[in-house]
């Protein structure tokens, strides 16, 4: 028999009548253990995460979110907030408590004249891209199409267009938020400015964002794709990659991977997107194509929407994932030698090591203009273990940790908050650096009891 009881954080059992009253107030549905669809709804992108909430509120509008927040606060329930559910640490779901699930909230309206989009928090990157691309428009939206726009934006948002147009959070014009006390607020440069600052990089610490307003840019066809070289050439390719990427124009964004090619051969891969004219782009990327004899050259003119789906096969939903991450400013010869000494052989065919570039416009925003503080040219370095088998990941986690530790002398010590796992308060502070005290001030104002704590948590001063 399935236990459907709901227990508060203080250990008090909730009366069934109060739960039914909440259910009656919703336009969306409530799922509890034993209900049809419950097991599917509690699953997230990373199958390493296997949690069992007492209730999942599948919101279809702001009113549902307000009712859920008020109920959770009143009854002292643990609260997780789910957008796309793509976070590696599984913060979008909890054991016991309540999940406020926004995945059914997928409304979007593009204004092709003003170059803006109003997008609800349940949208995935591909869904947002599809609507904007109908008008030849786009904004920075990560590099994997089934990532949720909410978590991506709130953590900062790397992406293929960041060099030319800034991070996702730099393109946020306003956000609608339900705060811990059940208020519905709009945050922008002219309303609740402190909250707007905190939402642009501070994660889900300050409330449930139900809708985002983005600035869009003319982006249709891009020159993009990947080029694969044999792993035995990795030292030369990575040395070239560093020199090539640090001199890249704003229109060009890059990544590099140590991974397994579709042929099964270990490979070093350069992935890129040039969002200017294709003729100029061909000149810019020519050095990549003339570096040596590649295993495959897949760089071509394509739609931005297709580019956004290019890396999806490397990170499929429903596999088991673990990674560590840090920011590294330079791929020195010593760093490359250390990397190759500890990374190879890769522990599973789907595992790898990535370097994602941030530069250009994204790096020229002031350090304290948003709650994403790492505004300098760098790479996000992440060793990642991927498998269909949970046990296979668990036995190989030491590979990722050992590699990450070996590379620490070459890192800044900082980290992109969206790439953090469950790594403790000190790592959260490293993610925010000198702006952390300001985040605490915003937290004190909008969530002083830390109702929204299932995230990379900024703790209020009680």
Polypeptide structure, described:
- By secondary structure, the protein is of the alpha+beta class.
- 29% of the residues lie in helices and 23% in strands.
- The model has no long low-confidence stretch (mean pLDDT 96).
- The longest helix has 18 residues, at 390-407.
- The strands form four sheets. Strands 12, 13, 14, 15, 16, 17, 18, 19 and 20 form a nine-stranded antiparallel sheet that branches.
- The protein has helices spanning 16-25, 38-42, 62-74, 125-133, 149-155, 162-165, 193-199, 234-246, 278-289, 304-308, 333-343, 390-407, 425-432, 436-446, and strands at 29-31, 55-58, 79-82, 98-101, 108-111, 116-120, 137-138, 172-178, 184-188, 208-215, 217-218, 221-230, 252-260, 266-274, 296-297, 300-303, 320-323, 326-328, 352-358, 378-387.
- The chain contains 14 helices and 20 strands.
- A hairpin with a 5-residue loop joins strand 8 (172-178) and strand 9.
- It has three domains: 16-101, Uridine Diphospho-n-acetylenolpyruvylglucosamine Reductase, domain 2 (2-Layer Sandwich); 108-218 and 435-446, Uridine Diphospho-n-acetylenolpyruvylglucosamine Reductase, domain 3 (2-Layer Sandwich); 221-419, Vanillyl-alcohol Oxidase, Chain A, domain 3 (3-Layer(aba) Sandwich).
């Amino acid at each position: 028999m399935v236990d459907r009881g709901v227990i508060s954080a203080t250990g008090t059992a909730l009366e069934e009548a109060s739960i039914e009253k909440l259910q009656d107030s919703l336009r969306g549905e409530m799922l509890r253990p034993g209900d049809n669809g419950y097991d599917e709804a509690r699953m997230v992108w990373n199958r390493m995460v296997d949690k069992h909430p007492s209730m999942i509120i599948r919101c279809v509008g702001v009113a549902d979110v307000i009712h859920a927040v008020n109920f959770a606060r009143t009854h002292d329930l643990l609260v997780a907030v789910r957008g796309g559910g793509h976070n590696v640490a599984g913060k979008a779901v909890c054991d016991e408590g309540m999940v406020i699930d926004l995945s059914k909230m997928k409304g979007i309206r593009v204004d092709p004249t003003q170059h803006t989009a109003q997008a609800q928090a349940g949208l995935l990157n591909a869904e947002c891209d599809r609507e904007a691309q109908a008008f030849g428009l786009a904004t920075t939206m990560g590099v994997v199409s089934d990532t949720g726009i909410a978590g991506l934006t709130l953590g900062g948002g790397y992406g293929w267009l960041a060099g030319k147009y800034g991070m996702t959070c730099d393109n946020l014009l306003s956000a609608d938020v339900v705060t811990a006390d059940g208020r519905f607020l709009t945050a922008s440069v002219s309303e609740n400015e402190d909250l707007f600052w905190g939402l642009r990089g501070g994660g889900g610490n300050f409330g449930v964002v139900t809708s985002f307003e983005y600035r869009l840019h003319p982006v249709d066809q891009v020159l993009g794709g990947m080029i694969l070289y044999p792993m035995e050439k990795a030292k030369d390719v990575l040395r070239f990659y560093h020199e090539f990427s640090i001199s890249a124009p704003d229109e060009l964004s890059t990544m590099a991977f140590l991974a397994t090619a579709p042929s099964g051969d270990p490979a070093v891969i350069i992935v890129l997107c040039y969002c200017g004219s294709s003729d100029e782009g061909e000149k810019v990327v020519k050095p990549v194509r003339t570096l040596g004899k590649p295993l495959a050259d897949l760089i071509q003119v394509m739609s931005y929407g297709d580019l956004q789906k290019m890396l999806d096969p490397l990170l499929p939903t429903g596999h088991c994932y673990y990674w560590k991450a840090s920011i590294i400013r330079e791929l020195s010869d010593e760093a490359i030698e250390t990397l190759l000494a500890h990374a190879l052989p890769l522990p599973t065919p789907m595992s790898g090591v990535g370097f994602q570039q941030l530069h250009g416009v994204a790096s020229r925003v002031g350090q304290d203009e948003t709650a994403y503080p790492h505004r300098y040219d760098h790479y996000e370095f992440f060793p990642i273990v991927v498998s269909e088998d949970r046990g296979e990941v668990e036995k190989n986690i030491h590979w990722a940790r050992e590699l990450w530790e070996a590379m620490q002398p070459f890192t800044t010590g900082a980290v992109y908050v969206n790439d953090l796992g469950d790594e403790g308060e000190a790592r959260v502070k490293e993610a925010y650096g000198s702006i952390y005290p300001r985040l605490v001030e915003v937290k004190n104002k909008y969530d002083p009891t830390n109702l929204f704590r299932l995230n990379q948590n900024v703790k209020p001063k009680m």
